[in-house]
Amino acid sequence: MPPVSQLNVPNCCLTCWCPCITFGQIAEIVDKGNTPCGAHGAFYAIIETLTCCGCMYSCAYRTKMRSQYGLRESPCNDCLVHFFCERCALCQEYRELKHRGFDISIGWQGNMERQNYGVQTPPVAPGGMYR
Questions:
Q1: b/e string for 96-111 if b means 16 or more Cβ within 10 A?
Q2: How many CA atoms lie within 13 Å of 41's alpha carbon, on the beta-carbon side?
Q3: What is the signed CA dihedral for 101, 5, 40, 43, rounded to 10 degrees?
Q4: Name one Pfam family in it (predicted).
Q5: How far apart are CA 122 and CA 109, in angstroms?
Q6: Nearest CA among 58, 13, 12 for reference residue 31
Q7: 29: closest CA among 119, 90, 87?
Q8: CA-wise closest residue to 23 among 69, 67, 89, 80
């Protein structure tokens, strides 16, 4: 268990009672803003309501996130982690993105704007970089 200083109690509570919101936030970041948080969350909620297997949708995003950041798949496969401990897996993914510098609450676009805020990129010389 991580130290108490690393726990995000509000996120843990939100994920416990409404995992579709946390999943939507995670999926928007992992998808690099291609699909908004609300769409991911709604789709998750529909799958969970109809089949009780929203974990089958969310485990795909865990796999995608692991691939993007070079994370190990251990101690077991992503689908098993989500099937047996869905809410814990979502909290873990949320913490991983926070640790990587994302402010999950502002979405992908907000993070890109924050990252580029006030930073001017000099023009690239034709033919590549020079010393």
A1: bbeeeebebeebbeeb
A2: 17
A3: 170
A4: PLAC8
A5: 22
A6: 58
A7: 90
A8: 89
Q: How does pLDDT run across 55-80, given as a tens digit for each residue? A: 999 999 999 999 999 999 877 899 99
CA dihedral defined by 19, 23, 24, 30, rounded to 10 degrees?
Answer: 170
**Neighbour-count burial of 76, counting CB atoms closer than 10 A to its CB (0-12 exposed, 13-18 middle, 19+ buried):** exposed
Q: Is the pTM of this model over 0.85?
A: no
* Overall residue count recorded for the chain in this entry: 131
Alpha helices in the chain (DSSP H): 9-17, 19-30, 37-51, 54-69, 78-99, 107-116
